[in-house]
Amino acid sequence: MIECFRRLVSFGPSLSVLKGILSFSGVFLLLINCPSYGVGNLEVLQTNTTIDQSGLIHLFGEIRNISDRPQQDIAIFANFYDQSGKNIGNGSGIVPVRSLNIGDISPFEIILLDSEQSPNVSNYSLNITSKAGSVKPENLVITSSKSRPDIFGYYYVNGRISNKGNNTATNVLAIASFYDKDGKIIGLSSAIAEPTNMTSLSMSSFTVVMDDKLQTSKIKNYYLTIDSDQYVS
């Protein structure tokens, strides 16, 4: 049985986009650019593929923690197939949010590092591994953000972060996922905050750059997550 439904994902005060979710069980062979499925502790909310200026195929997606425990060290593995079902390559990626709280969402990216086979990709399958982690308090607050393209075709997201926690947040990372007019994820980028270690009640800034010039003109929305060893946004 296949069940399809839609949900509204908020992108801040003025940004929102509808995304589809397809959930099913059985053998998992995914059609390009189709929503996906639940795998154990994690649910894949959507996937999308793009080809960059070097001819490499990028598989982007979003996952949600549907377990009853935070999940950390999340790794995603992809096998790529041509139209005949032949395996023509594989790739893997680490979810940038280091520990995903219950119900939280993180983007991911997998690259097939073979420009000769990238045009032949017709289908792909996913496998996800993770282990139980600890709850991260949501003590990192994005106090401001703005975005802009430049004349060279890059897309910038700048912002400020406040640490509302009682402890220092170390290795603070800003993660930006980018979406087209249809709500499909078309890019993922991250940047270390400056300063990268934030004492209690301190401020930090970040600049995330999307450098795939073939996709930057398609960006309509973006979503930010701030992560650290102790806290998350």
- The CATH class of the largest domain turns out to be Mainly Beta
Helix-residue proportion: under 10%
What CATH architecture of the largest domain do you see? Sandwich
Distance between the termini: 36 Å
Using only CA atoms, what is the Rg? 18 Å
CATH topology name of the largest domain, in short, is Immunoglobulin-like
Give the overall average pLDDT.
84
Order of helices and strands: EEEEEEEEEEEEEEEEHE
Describe the sheet with the most strands.
5 strands, antiparallel
Structurally, the number of domains stands at 2
The general outline is globular
Total beta strand runs: 17
Summing up helix and strand content along with how strands pair, one would put the structural category as: mainly beta
Q: How many distinct helices?
A: 1
**pLDDT below 50 for ≥5 consecutive residues: which ranges?**
1-38
Strand content: over 45%
